[in-house]
Design brief:
heterotrimer; A alpha+beta; B alpha+beta; C alpha+beta; B: alpha+beta; Uridine Diphospho-n-acetylenolpyruvylglucosamine Reductase, domain 2; Enolase-like, domain 1; 5-stranded antiparallel sheet; 4-stranded antiparallel sheet; 11 helices; globular; C: alpha+beta; Ubiquitin-like (UB roll); DNA polymerase, domain 1; 2 domains; 5 helices; 5 strands
Amino acid sequence: MNAPLIGARIERKEDYRFLTGAGQYTDDVELPRQSYAAFVRSPHAHAKIRKISLDKARQAPGFIAAYTGEDFAAAKLGGLPCGWLITDVNGQPMKEPPHPCLAQGKVRYVGDQVAIVVAETSEQARDAAERVNVDYEVLPAVVDGSKARAKGAPQLHDIAPDNTCYVWALGDKAVTDAAFAKAAHVTKLDFINNRLIPNALEPRVANGSYSRADDSYTLYVASQNPHVERLLMTAFVMGLPEHKVRVVAGDVGGGFGSKIYLYAEDVAVTWASKQVNRPVKWTSDRSEAFLSDAHGRDHHTVAELALDKDGKFLAMRVKTTANVGAYLSTFASCVPTILYATLLAGQYKTPVIHCEVTAVFTNTTPVDAYRGAGRPEATYVVERLVETAAREMKIDPAEIRRRNFITAFPYQTPVALMYDIGDYNATMDAAQKLADVSGFSKRKEQSIKNGKLRGLGYAAYIEACGIAPSAVAGSLGARAGLFEAGEVRVHPTGSVTVFTGSHSHGQGHETTFAQVVADRLGMPIENVDIVHGDTSKILFGMGTYGSRSIAVGGTAIVKALDKVIAKGKKIAAHLMEAAEADVEYDRGVYTVKGTDKKKMFGEVAFAAYVPHNYPHDKLEPGLNENAFYDPSNFTFPAGTYVCEVEVDPETGVVRIEKFTAVDDFGKIINPMIVEGQVHGGLTQGIGQALTEGCRYDDATGQLLTGSFMDYCIPRATDVPSYQVDTRETPCTHNPLGVKGCGEAGAIGAPAALMNAITDALGVTDMPMPATPQTVWRTLQNKKAA
Amino acid sequence: MHAFKYHRPSSLNDAAALMKGDAKLLAGGQTLVQTMKLRLASPSDIVDLGTIKDLAGIKSDGKSVTVGAMTRHADVAHSADVNKAIPALAALAAMIGDRQVRAMGTIGGSLANNDPAADYPAAVLALNATITTNKGKHEADKFFKGMFTTALGAGEIITAVSFQVPKRAAYMKFKNPASRFAIVGVFVADFGGSVRVAVTGAGPVVFRQAEMEKALAAKFAPESVANIKVKQDGLNSDMHASAEYRAHLVTVMARRAVQAALK
Amino acid sequence: MAVKVSLKVNGKSVSAEVEERTLLVTVIRENLRLTGTHVGCDTAQCGACTVSMNGKAVKSCSILAMQAEGAEVMTIEGVAKPDGTLHPMQAAFKEHHGLQCGFCTPGMVMNAIDFAKSHPNPSEQEVREALEGNLCRCTGYHNIVKAIGAGARAMAASK
């Protein structure tokens, strides 16, 4: 028998192709008679379209076709749907203004799509797009969420007065207010969770084609969830039957949420491919990506924590304005509500919590889920409040956390979630040790000697992953199920192809999932291939986001695997002339209890496909099973992060001296891959806190951070080597005991880093990102005060 | 990128003759090609200097270091001659862009472009360099006219830059975290008796800081500049750095440059 | 107007008829169909398009195809041995999990190989500084830095 594969640090199966340039990303797909699209985008944040003239574009060399919103309306193409209905405080549905693929009479943000131009080459498409003449009547714009509801603010949508999408709340306000009235201490913070631009390294690509032979479409697209993309596009926008559309998302160069959504460009190239009877490809350049990929975060929050004299949390009160941008992107509505307010208990026994969220439209790029989605915002609220309260009450920040940790499970929070398991003291203990917190004061002295400031900050985060039980999601407004599907196809000679509805765009599923399957079947990992990302191959899939792949997708595979093994047991019993009840199975070997009889899994598989000696009266031949898995609860990864920084007070430069992360992801399949996910998440979280901040010009609504020249995603010199470790409380409600690890770093890092910086500077709060200028300014203000 | 006509002249004269209308010279292309890709520049003609002989190379004679216009940043950074004569110049070249950009970008291209946040102008001005072109010579003090403008005339092509060798010098750069251009870069050069301090990134064009030069000429020490308050007037102000912050950084970078030069 | 550009790519002489405005990366990806070289930005920041030209790592999105006339170019496809054995730097990326989505990886590897030629035993700080022109959004650089150090030492050892 082979060595156990679950828990093993195995090099990735997918790496060889990536390392040799053999990956097949969407832009690498070149179809016969390929044509190319470019989009005409609004240069204004808010404007009426008086007239669009295509005459000059039609004269451009290589021009094939151009279409505007009028053409799309005539073709009865619908708008882009939102997948989650939020019901407001008055029981009314959220306002859902139309989100046309191409502007209908009005543009609402810089980058809004106005027309698609198709030409022989991509440069010719751009040349022709430049010649499209659009006559705009420029309107005043509002980009700041806090100003969207002000009197006289420009109105984006007729159906959304005061630019309000919804006012939503969770928790008991009266009880919360009463708890605040009795508090010995109240900590209050007012801050912005900065807007981010995801910037997966591979820009979005969509390549649509049409077959006259069977009246069907194929869309190659850089997507995290091809089936969801197909469902939304066919049923809600194009009015096509699903079986007439194939969506393929092969190798995808990172997603981080930004490739979950159905985008206008995807619909436009697919529809246009039938009009021109040629494949139509659009490849976003980075400048376009900055304007047109869904952004993340953008909350303005006032948060309060009530404590008794011993630092015990009594209540939390949170009021947030969430800027959702110009239109509702696919999951925009659930991010600042369902994925946010429900996490405000954090790791603590806060007995009552009230959260009110107002979602507003502004003349900015739509905002949707970005790595962590709601949970980084919640963690930031909780962990900044907790750290600040500790400082104000002169209690050690780790100690105040320990006094309030949830220690008995299952635990019902006041904000709807039921935590199944965790051990928050264990991750805190380990993190403090690994970070050498006890040596901090010495290091601080040394920094001061060198004219530097030094600070230390914690974040003890929790997240709800494995999204989600469909029934729960449905009761909260989800318009889709959130299960996952898997299929295990055993071939006659015993090798296995596994089809999964999860999608890998860097997570390493081809290895992790293969480890699970090969381990169970007792075969070398080379004998197992994982296939994902093609609606024509995979039975169904809800895709990858919310750190759900191993917990939901992995479990679906295990369920299918169980069926394969169970059927194999019947075959083995027949082959070994034993009662099925006496047959036992362990990692590829069927044995008969109390005998030395055994059959290898490969022999059983062969018998299933060459069924000469076979129980035909009881079983069909073949060994191919599928399963759908709908989880019974979320999973709850949690951990403690400790960040230590040194600040140069002269320049404001922050250097991260040490970053320690101890996470509890439940059981771990491949520690190497898990560590990599943590490293990446931490870096994006550090990016939010230190370097990344999307900025719009208040007056014109122009995006000021529209390229890597102005928007700084972390470079290698901006981040340290990390110290990471794990503790393990296995998830109680899935067979692998797994929780998910993809977002943790991005969720916990910003609060830990800002807690460290504010500690170093000796200030209560300062805005993210803590760029040198902002840090320097904060110090100047402190000096002046 | 808009369409253009590409030329590969084999001599400076041929290149100069091609510089008509909206023609642009192409040196390393690390700025120009980006600008063209973004369709922010649309030259009618591109005149590639890449195959003209003798435009690249480094010569040092003890008093000055002469760098050919087509010499790549990486070659300046790694040059034994430059490292020996003016290590601060080699260090500056090693701070431009990133290593791939340095393998292509050239000193001539950088100077002709005169980006207000570029590094080389600080060295040229502080080291009192002479810029040689196909038509004559320019003194550093009269070369940088304003944002993206220089004293170069139509059809004038930089061929080499001669830097005076100082007694000691150093360049301190405070990078824009995103672009890696200079938010503030200060080049301090001590010629023994006279000191030149050139500041890039802070204003619309590289400039000399007279007050610091005077103080350092009197005493070449960090404390000579540590308390000099630089005026904000006329300095750049953008979302990365206000004029006030830039003014502050000029002092800090100048002091650190002096410290480094003394090491 | 179409012009002809001739160069050597991965040891083979090739030529292509292209528009004058064509970038080197476009010739590599579209004319030669060597799609391992990627384009991740339009401002020369991300480095996903890094190839070796005349022995130096350069950004092929910032070079006109015509500038590469007569050049010797190596792309990621030319790095492994003809029998498919990975180059020590590629192997180090695999061993140290220096890649996730794989999109930045070819550029990382091409730059790392060039860097390692002059840095047979680099420090962590040297590696991080050498990556100034390569962006990765997945790995947080931690494992890339480890991989490049190990790859450089392996390259030095295999000389």
